Here is the input.
Amino acid sequence: MARSVYSEITPEMEALADLCVKNGKIDPELYAKYDVKRGLRDINGNGVLTGLTDISEIRSSRMENGVKIPCEGQLFYRGYSIEDLVRSMPSDHSFGFEVTAYLLLFGELPSKEQLDGFIKQLSFYRTLPTNFVRDIIMKAPSGDMMNTLARSVLTMYSYDDAPDDISIPNVLRQCIQLIAIFPLLSVYGYQAYRHYHEGKNLYNRRRSLPPPKIFCVFCVPINSSPRWKPRCSTSRLCCTQSTAAATTPRSQHMSCRPPARIRIPPLPRHSAL
Here is the structure.
């Protein structure tokens, strides 16, 4: 891709950058004098306490005889070790993403009924505004996936009828909606990156799957497993062409996914505080 003239570093810009460096220095001793933390670390490299949470915890050290000793990092979600959570999932890891999202949001592992209801909520919100992919993702592709996701999330503000309502129900609705559309944003963003930055074809043909396989852009291969049967009214045209899928009523997709068959065994829970 040709580099834009507006992205080039000119000699004039180099000179201005040198001027910024010359007149923008701060004496390092002032940080100690006024006890100013450098980012999220103090002068000894210890983490700075910025708040309290019981949502997640990272353990990177342990205390032995009053001495802090580095250890292999451990990650906890709501007091549950992430390793225990992974081991407790079914062998095919079905709905592991949904279970973990529910745990982070609501602080407890879901029952079967709670998980079914949460999956239906995600299915309902798993759609993007009309022409969003074309206007936001395809017309200004980025070489950085995090940039694509951040830009897409910020743009969703313009499509929200209550973006500034900070009541708990509305913020929760926004969170669930973002959780539902992040996979769509990731897939579309990556395909745009492959096409514009790597010269790949937007048509992604999976040769390992003999036709006719029915796919639904809102979930997963419907008939890729004997226990998964197409129970929605989506046609093959809907499930293979995103333009048609975007116009299909969401209610037709809400039964695409099989009922949750997951049982989380009792897991040891640790206090984060």
